[in-house]
Write a structure and sequence with these properties.
147 residues; mainly beta; Immunoglobulin-like
Length: 147
């Protein structure tokens, strides 16, 4: 690991959370999402795993999540700080994984390719996905048919 903190993974999911150091997600790892239009926000979660070096514990680390369109223009940028301690039972020199889940709500201005980029220091991880226009919902079918 060249830096004191490394972005280990970045996963998009319908919903995700971290409990007791474990990542729980529903609908994770997709590469396409539908939108009802530019005025309809889409909700999803970015799950990011960081590896923190032994000598980088007990220090604040500035991180960002950036949502970009196909031209690299920022649609959304979220900054946050992570910090982890060093438990007494941790072997000397060991790295620690810190997992963060960030709920995102964004109204995409148009369908197309987008990228989510997680950055910590000089290190980053990128995942891309397609935003597609969801078909207009059809009228519900009634069963049994009205008499």
């Amino acid at each position: 690991m060249s830096d004191s903190i490394e972005v280990d993974f970045l996963i998009v999911a319908d919903r995700a959370e971290v409990l007791n150091g474990k990542l729980y997600m529903m609908g994770g790892g997709w590469d396409s999402i539908g939108t009802g239009g530019p005025d309809q926000p889409v909700h999803f979660t970015a799950a990011v795993g960081f590896l923190v070096a032994w000598n980088a514990t007990n220090v604040d680390h500035a991180c960002t999540i950036r949502l970009e369109d196909a031209d690299g223009v920022a649609v959304l940028s979220l900054g946050y700080t992570i910090k982890t301690g060093r438990p007494p039972s941790l072997p000397e020199g060991a790295t620690q994984r810190v997992t963060v889940c960030l709920p995102i709500a964004v109204a995409f201005s148009h369908p197309g390719m987008y990228a989510l980029v997680a950055t910590a220091g000089e290190n980053h991880r990128r995942t891309t996905f397609q935003v597609r226009q969801a078909p207009a919902s059809a009228a519900p079918t009634l069963w049994p048919p009205p008499s």
